[in-house]
Predict the structure of Mediator of RNA polymerase II transcription subunit 1.
Amino acid sequence: MNSSVFLHRLGSHQSPTEPACYITSDMFYLEVLMKPSGEVLDVKVAHHGEAPVVMLKNFEDFSKKLEGFSSLYHIHGDSETKIKTYLALQSLETDLMKMSRFPRPVVNNNPRIDAILHGRVGNLVPRREGNPMSIEYFITPYDQLEEQMMPGLSCYGNKVLVTVDGTSILHKLPVASLIEDSQQVENERVSLFRGLDGAVSMDLPACFFLKFPQPFPILTSFIENIQRLTGISMVGELQYIPFYELLTRAVLEQKHCTVDHLDQYFLVSLPDNHFHSYVLSQEASLHLKKPPEGALINNIPFSHPEQVPSILEILRHQSAYNTLIASCITTNRADKGSVV
């Protein structure tokens, strides 16, 4: 127990009256109930101002869950600042949950896929234990078809995690729900957000983030659109390179395939022993004034819940484009000169 506490820089103390240990931080505490023999009976977690809830009974997962809790709160400042930042995260999650319940178009017979592709905030899974709130915002046509062909199967699509993190500059963040009411406009419910006045917002050394489970290839033009939307620059963290090279390397690395050189055909098998061959090259886009560039991004900073639906719409477009191009990138390759 002490090693985990040391690794995660948390405090701890043991109950003087019962076989229980408490692991504490500025943001939350964990209550570990034990048998007299030392075996763990239960683990409960309580955030600031909230009642304890059962976390898990499997001690093997305890360290991973503890690490997840600690990673949620990389916040600068004193205890009061950290608590206010947690209130900001709570208010964001509350408004995202409200938006997730707004009516959406019914396009598929699968409510989850409709939520992913047509919901204001995708398919939202609330924060639980050491796992941040997640938003599933895109699923490929192939996975949609597979779910239709195999009832009960769930193919997981692209997602982002909703977190708050410390920053070197102040951002005005809401510390209370901003959705006051809703009204019917052209048969759709439109959220009405309160302004960020002093009663519902604070300047804090933190920012909200949509974090990707793995680096996400995105076009420069979409990055610029997101930055205009949020008013927060990501330029300092990014390295722009030709987009087709970027996406090719990312896809092949996911398939654990090394990239010797990109001047190759990718061979896609077809029925009856036929195949298509593709080559992705910046040379093919020289007719453009500026060939497309892009970057790998790990997260998207933002400061207002109203920005999330627009960000997700941009990510859906990029994901659809990436899926199309990635379908041409395979581990079956041949040099240009060897293909007739």
